[in-house]
Amino acid sequence: xxxxxxxxxxxxxxxxxxxxxxxxxxxxxxxxxxxxxxxxxxxxxxxxxxxxxxxxxxxxxxxxxxxxxxxxxxxxxxxxxxxxxxxxxxxxxxxxxxxxxxxxxxxxxxxxxxxxxxxxxxxxxxxxxxxxxxxxxxxxxxxxxxxxxxxxxxxxxxxxxxxxxxxxxxxxxxxxxxxxxxxxxxxxxxxxxxxxxxxx
Length: 200
Prior knowledge:
Layout: H1 2-21, H2 24-27, H3 52-147, H4 154-199
């Protein structure tokens, strides 16, 4: 748009200069230094005059084009300025958000690093405590076997009691039999002693 506007303004400048002088020879000729001798601009015909009416219409059209182009360029410039301001605002907001997120990441990293260290420490403590507990349990089991009286099951106690009762009954039977023998033997001795006394 800037190049187009510059071109329109240059054309207006040339045309205004041309029609202001009323002579086409000075303003519309090409530079002879750029062409060879065979391609030089021919001399204007005798009696040539610039047409002011046609020139005025062309200049009016170019002025309208210049105005429209300048207006469109101003709109585009304003739009670009607004977009640039919006871009800078969004970019600044993004930078602030990114800085905040980076800080959050830093703090979270520190937090989970500390938690990992705590977990490692607690795991080590737990393993040590489990090792100590296993040793204590083993020692307690040995002490229990040696020191703690184990209750005798009912069936075993019943069998033992029945065996004791059977033994006592057998002992009573034996004692009763021995008592009967002693009594018999004692009675026989008394009888024999009494008989001998009678014989005397």
